[in-house]
Write a structure and sequence with these properties.
Layout: H1 4-19, H2 25-29, H3 39-62, E1 67-68, H4 73-77, H5 87-107, E2 116-119, E3 123-126, H6 127-151
Parallel strand pairs: 1-2
Antiparallel strand pairs: 2-3
Helix pairs in contact: 1-5, 1-6, 3-5, 3-6
Amino acid sequence: MDRQLIEVYVDGGRQLGSAYSGLSRSDLLAIPVPGTWSLQQIAIHMMDSDLIATDRMKRIASMDKPLLCSYDETAFSQLPGTNDLNATLACEIFAKNREMTAVILRSLSDACFDRVGIHTEIGKVTLGEMVSKYIDHLAGHMEHIVRKRALLGKAIRF
């Protein structure tokens, strides 16, 4: 794995935080594209997903072929109280989690990024693939965030 990906991974925290600046509570809860998640739900999903990702990465780095359980992101997004959570704080937790995880990733040997875990839905996945997957995961959601902000009249560029 190209170790520069660790820096791309950690910079995602800054990107997500910037994407949520200047949004009101009504902006966060709006659903400008019917049938999709609100910006609030995306922020909480990104936090949840990255916390789970960190657990998976640490398991792969420290255990022999650990089992990596899937989860139902839609069910998570519909939990009572989700809309009452602080989206800004979720973005801060996302960023801090990536900063802390990056310290560990930078400390690992190159060979460690070839270690595998067994995901319950996709099968074998290496630590290096997990880092790339979560970089891509953020990039995909950033596209949605930018689009939704534009539809709300709060355009932002990255």
